[in-house]
Amino acid sequence: QELRPKSLDIKQEELGDMVEKEMASTSEAIEDAVRRIEEMMSQARNESSGVKLEVNERILNSCTDLMKAIRLLVMTSTNLQKEIVESGRGAATTQEFYAKNSRWTEGLISASKAVGWGATQLVESADRVVLHMGKYEELIVCSHEIAASTAQLVAASKVKAEKSSRNLGRLQECSRNVNEMAANVVASTKSGQEQIEEKDTMDFSGMSLIKLKKEEMETQVKVLELEKRLEGERVRLGELRKQHYALAGTYDAEEDGEAKPAPAPRRSILKKPPLAQKP
């Protein structure tokens, strides 16, 4: 809700100021994220060792590379926006250009907020993982969210850009680099998780037959519980996505005012041809 532009509460002449403010705020969020990751790296070296230190360093290094890639993308996007405004405003002022193209401006604001928010969430997730209080899956989800929000920023910046623009070419290159760095975060997180889990695997060699049987039954119960919970979470995810699409306007509103998915086209029923028609 915070990321959605509140058009009715913003005067059109203020949109230009908001674009500059949000881009500056996003840059500050990324700079702060880089500083926090460096602090976490120093803390990890002091408080961990062996496999855990190796895993933490690899994850934090990949997060740092991702933040640097995002920082370059935001800088390039800012340069492209200035180029767009200068080439398209004519005799109008910058503020008038943004006001005239208010929907495009709101898209930039929303995309910029999403990028800054994603960077902050990634750092918080990394902090919890390093402190062994978080989940590796959180880092993976945050990486996907950052890739999506940077793609949104590129799309918003690209709408009014000239195809021959050098800044547009640089922006697209930066976007590919961000996707690559986000994939590296996912890869380092998954490999680190596997290393930690292998290290923490229980040793069953000293257990008696009765103890092993008890552990086996308890594990079977946990498996059934997790399978049931997984199915419930999948249903919940589906409902969340439906609501997301409804808010985005992709669902058709019924006469009673409820947002429901548009009915899928019916497939034609293939009837078996009579014998006379067979070759």
Separate helix tally: 7
Q: What's the N-to-C terminus distance?
A: 62 Å
Q: Give the CATH superfamily of the domain at 14-195.
A: I/LWEQ domain
Form type: elongated
What characterizes the major β-sheet? Answer: 2 strands, antiparallel
Q: What order do the strands of the largest sheet run in, or round the barrel if closed?
A: 1-2
Number of strands: 2
Q: How confident overall, as mean pLDDT?
A: 78
- CATH topology-level fold name of the domain at 14-195: I/LWEQ domain
In N-to-C order, the SSE pattern is HHHHHHHEE
Helix fraction bin:
over 70%
Low-confidence stretches at least 5 residues in length (pLDDT < 50)?
none
- Radius of gyration, in Å, reads 26 Å
CATH class of the domain at 14-195: Mainly Alpha
Summary?
With 279 residues, this protein is mostly helical. Helix content is 73%, strand content 1%. The relative contact order is 0.10.
Overview of this structure, please?
This protein has 279 residues and is mainly alpha-helical. The protein has a domain at 14-195: I/LWEQ domain, CATH 1.20.1410. 73% of the residues lie in helices and 1% in strands. The protein has 7 helices and 2 strands, in the order H-H-H-H-H-H-H-E-E. It has helices spanning 15-47, 50-88, 94-100, 102-130, 136-158, 166-199, 209-247, and strands at 252-253, 259-260. Strands 1-2 form a two-stranded antiparallel ribbon. The model has no long low-confidence stretch (mean pLDDT 78). One of its GO terms (biological process) is clathrin coat assembly. This is HIP1R protein. One of its GO terms (molecular function) is clathrin adaptor activity.
